[in-house]
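REQUEST FORM: STRUCTURE PREDICTION
Request ID: SP-0412
Submitted by: Lab K.M.
Chain count: 1
Length (residues): 108
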Amino acid sequence: MNFLYASYRLQAQVDETESPPWWVLLRDAFGPAKRPSIAQILLRSGMVNSIATQQRRRKQARLLLTPSLAGIDLLDWKAFERAEAAGYEYTKNRLAECGVAPTANERT
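STATUS: Completed
RESULT:
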């Protein structure tokens, strides 16, 4: 089963055992991100505690919807519409597979 928390991993493109000098951090600030942001670290650390609860809830669900959100970071607010559209399409397809008829309020 593809768990949501498994797809949200903090990626770093550096291998460091101590903090780099300030000028290296300044230079890296204007290039592609090599280290996770403090917001990503704090968010992920908060999610760790809920993993066991999430696993129990998933076992209780009759239908579990897990759309693929590959390429959409959890904190990427500019990708909200793309994530919403992916979730909507996935849900619509899964419900059709389960034989659930669309409602009158369905989007076009």
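NOTES: The chain has two domains: 1-61, 63-108.
Reviewed by: T.R.
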